C-alpha cells in the first residue's frame, strides 16, 4: 500500500486531478447546500445536462470543453430564471422547456462529433468525463472560476439565506429576490459545469447533491452545513482518485473509471450517514435508560 501511495502522490496526472478535484469539491459542497435547501436539485440536474450542449459543441469546434460547459451553463441559468417568473411552478416549467431543447442539441452535436469530427470518444468525454484527463494548463482557469463562483455565493449569501427561509419576508425587507435568484443560478451553473469537466455531465450532480445532503443530515445551520459538505466532498474526491489509481494493479492494467469511484464514494458516504442518523435515536434512548 505504501508503494501505491508513493506513486499516487508523485504522479503529475494525479497532482492535477487532486488540485482540480479539490476546487470542484469545495465549490460543489457549498453551492449544493443552498441547492437542496432552496429545492432546486432538479435545476442543478438540468443545468448539468444542458452543459453537455456546450461541451459537445466545443468538442466539435476543437476548443476546450471547459468553455463550452461554462458558456452553455450560464446561458441556460439566465434563460431558466428569465422564463420562470415568480412561482416555483413556473420555474419548473421553464427548466423543463430549456432542458428538453438542450438535450436535443446535445444529441445532434455528439452525432456530428462522430460523423464530421471523426471522434468516437466525444460522448464518453462529455457525458462521463475523467479527472485524470484534465489538461494541467487549465488548472489556473479552473481555480479562477471556482473562486469566482464562491465570490458570487458570498455576495448573495445573506439574501439567498433569507429568501430560502421566507421569500415574502425577503421581499418585504427589500431583498432583490429576482437578482439574488439569478446570481445564485449562475453560481449553480458554474459549479455544475466545473464538476461536469471533472466527472462528466451525467454524474456531476452527484458531487452537488451527495455531500450537501450528507452534511444536512447532521446540521441545519447553513454555514456549518456548507463547510461540512465541502470537507466531505474533498474527502470523497481524494478517496475516489486513490481507489481508481490503485485499481490499475488490481485488474492487470485496467483501472476503474475515476468518475465511477468518486460517485461510489459519494453514495457510500451518504448511505453510511443515513444509517448513523437512523441509529441516533436508538443510541440516545439506550443511554437515557
Question: How would you sum up this structure, described in words?
Answer:
The chain is an all-alpha fold. The chain contains 12 helices and no strands. Helix 4 packs antiparallel against helix 5. The longest helix has 31 residues, at 258-288. The radius of gyration is 20 Å and the shape is globular. The protein starts with a helix and ends with a helix. The relative contact order is 0.16. Residues 85-89 have low confidence and may be disordered.
- Work out the strand percent: under 5%
Work out the number of β strands.
0
One letter per element, helices H and strands E, the order comes to HHHHHHHHHHHH
Overall shape: it is globular
Average pLDDT, rounded to a whole number, is 81
What percent of the residues sit in helical stretches (DSSP H or I)? Answer: over 70%
Report low-confidence residues grouped into runs of 5 or more. Answer: 85-89
SSE-based structural type = mainly alpha
Radius of gyration: 20 Å
Tally of contiguous helical segments:
12
The major β-sheet equals: none
End-to-end CA span? 44 Å
Summarize the entry for a quick read.
The chain has 289 residues and is mostly helical. About 2% of the residues have low confidence.
Keywords:
globular, 289 residues, mainly alpha, 0% strand, single chain
Topology:
Layout lengths: L1 H9 L1 H26 L3 H21 L3 H19 L4 H28 L6 H6 L11 H27 L1 H6 L4 H23 L4 H13 L5 H29 L7 H31 L1
Amino acid at each position: 500500500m505504501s508503494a501505491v501511495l508513493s506513486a499516487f502522490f508523485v504522479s503529475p496526472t494525479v497532482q492535477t486531478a487532486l488540485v482540480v478535484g479539490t476546487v470542484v469539491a469545495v465549490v460543489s459542497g457549498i453551492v449544493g447546500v443552498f441547492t437542496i435547501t432552496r429545492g432546486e436539485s432538479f435545476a442543478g440536474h438540468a443545468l448539468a445536462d444542458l452543459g453537455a450542449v456546450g461541451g459537445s459543441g466545443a468538442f466539435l469546434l476543437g476548443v476546450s470543453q471547459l468553455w463550452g460547459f461554462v458558456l452553455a451553463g450560464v446561458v441556460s441559468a439566465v434563460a431558466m430564471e428569465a422564463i420562470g417568473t415568480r412561482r416555483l411552478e413556473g420555474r419548473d416549467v421553464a427548466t423543463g422547456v430549456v432542458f428538453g431543447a438542450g438535450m436535443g442539441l446535445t444529441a445532434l452535436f455528439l452525432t456530428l462529433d462522430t460523423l464530421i469530427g471523426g471522434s468516437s470518444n466525444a460522448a464518453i468525454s462529455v457525458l462521463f468525463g475523467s479527472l485524470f484527463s484534465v489538461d494541467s494548463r487549465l488548472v489556473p482557469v479552473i481555480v479562477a472560476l471556482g473562486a469566482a463562483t464562491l465570490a458570487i455565493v458570498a455576495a448573495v449569501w445573506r439574501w439567498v439565506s433569507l429568501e430560502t427561509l421566507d421569500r415574502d419576508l425577503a421581499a418585504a425587507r427589500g431583498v432583490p429576490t429576482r437578482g439574488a435568484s439569478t446570481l445564485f443560478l449562475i453560481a449553480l451553473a458554474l459549479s455544475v459545469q466545473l464538476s461536469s469537466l471533472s466527472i462528466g455531465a451525467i454524474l456531476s450532480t452527484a458531487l452537488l447533491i451527495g455531500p450537501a445532503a450528507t452534511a444536512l443530515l447532521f446540521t441545519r445551520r447553513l454555514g456549518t452545513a456548507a463547510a461540512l459538505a465541502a470537507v466531505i466532498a474533498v474527502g470523497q474526491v481524494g478517496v475516489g482518485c486513490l481507489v481508481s489509481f490503485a485499481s490499475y494493479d488490481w485488474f492487470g492494467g485496467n483501472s476503474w473509471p475515476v468518475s465511477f469511484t468518486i460517485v461510489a464514494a459519494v453514495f457510500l458516504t451518504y448511505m453510511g450517514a443515513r444509517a448513523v442518523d437512523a441509529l441516533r435515536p436508538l443510541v440516545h434512548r439506550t443511554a437515557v435508560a
